[in-house]
Design goal:
With 258 residues, the protein is of the alpha+beta class. Helix content is 26%, strand content 18%. It folds into 2 domains: 134 residues, no CATH class; 75 residues, no CATH class. The chain has a 4-stranded antiparallel β-sheet, with no helix packed on it. Strands 8-7-9 form a 3-stranded antiparallel β-sheet. The radius of gyration is 24 Å and the shape is globular.
Length: 258
């Protein structure tokens, strides 16, 4: 099992307040101090130029990616006496997701047009059971032919088109990612195929040695090759010194994270 960190923080370079997945804030609405604007923050994603975090308003079915929130002040963070989160969020969010699906992937657009990349894991866990099968059907019927991770008879299969509905489409959650890593070694898919699908569906990178255990098992099970005939030693003036392999230094990222 490959662990995934529960909480990630983003500390904006502009000196604004730190943000983290699951944070909900509320501040007085400009021009009307009796009303409050609420915001929920989601997943942190690292791009080449900066770190971004997902953000949505109550009742929204999509997440936008932002670098930070310079206007946030300490009093907007959760504290005793904070304004309650809007009670109608669930009902409004459900309706918004329904409309988003209908106007994007059910109209032939890409999965990424749902704008769920920055969603918090808790939010995905909340809504995937409600909309997951509908999303799978939309992807299966799309001309885009996007490849997604499907579990068929307990085995991972990377599929597109009608094959998507032949099994269970893994959810784009942390639990879905961990199951993907668990099933990947025995799937028969190549490392690059698994890498591409992991990046597409979860915005995560599989561990470099994910398939090593499976390769080792196959090596043990394979029949032993016949010994090669000994070769004659080369004359001293024909001996070739082979170059020493270069060493690649890799950053110590947590498994499954960019």
């Amino acid at each position: 099992m490959y662990a995934v960190r529960d909480t990630e923080f983003i500390v904006p370079e502009d000196g604004s307040a730190p943000l983290y997945e699951g944070l909900r804030v509320a501040g007085p609405r400009p021009g009307n101090a009796e009303l409050f604007d609420h915001l929920e923050f989601g997943r942190v994603l690292s791009e080449a130029d900066a770190d971004y975090i997902g953000r949505r308003s109550p009742g929204s079915g999509a997440w936008e990616m932002v670098k930070g929130m310079a206007q946030l002040r300490p009093e907007t963070y959760p504290h005793e006496g904070s304004p309650p989160w809007p009670a109608d969020d669930d009902a409004a969010t459900e309706a918004a997701i329904d409309r988003k699906i209908a106007t994007t992937i059910e109209r032939g657009k890409y999965y990424e047009d749902l704008q769920w990349d920055g969603a918090s894991d808790a939010w995905l866990v909340r809504w995937w059971p409600r909309f997951g099968e509908r999303i799978a059907r939309a992807i299966a019927g799309s001309i885009r032919q996007e490849t997604v991770p499907v579990v068929v008879d307990g085995k991972l299969s990377l599929r597109s088109g009608e094959g998507v509905t032949a099994g269970e489409l893994l959810p784009p959650t942390r639990a879905g990612w961990e199951r993907y890593l668990e099933l990947a070694p025995a799937s028969g898919h190549k490392f690059t195929e698994l890498l591409d699908t992991g990046r597409f569906w979860w915005e995560r990178r599989i561990p470099q040695r994910l398939l090593s255990a499976e390769d080792a098992t196959e090596a043990v099970a394979a029949p032993e090759a016949a010994p090669e005939a000994p070769s004659e030693p080369m004359p001293p003036d024909e001996v070739v010194t082979m170059p020493t392999p270069s060493t690649t230094i890799r950053a110590n990222f947590p498994p499954g994270m960019e």
